[in-house]
Amino acid sequence: MSNHFLLLLQVLPGKNSCKWEIIDMTDTETKLLTELERLRAEVGELLAEKADLEMLVENITTHSDGVEAQLFLLNRQLKVEIRDRQEKEASLRVSEALLRAINKSLQREKADLEIILETTTQHGDLVENLTFSQRQVEQ
What we know:
- With 139 residues, the protein is mostly helical.
- It contains 1 helix and 2 strands; from the N terminus they run E-E-H.
- The chain has one helix at 28-138, and strands spanning 5-12, 17-24.
- The protein has a two-stranded antiparallel ribbon with strand order 1-2.
- The termini are far apart.
């Protein structure tokens, strides 16, 4: 009776490695059926893991689409708010320049009125005497 051997390469899932196994072919059928059953179980586990991963990818994709839509909406709202603030700032700058011009004009008018008041106060008696003299000449 001769002995027959089978060299088997087994890939270890999740470990990025493999192992070699030498199988004695003397009791071949039993060992092959056992190996076949183990491989079927491993395929079942891999298929279940694949389904879980596909479901996870779908959930992440769905959730990321919602987040992306929210971010897009917020971005659009922020752009509108920035534009509104820029318009308000420009309007405030124009108003500020106008108020500065009005203030400067009022300060000049105030200074002119103060000069007129001072002149009137200092020379009021003279003006009154001249006015009185003109009325007497006219009568």
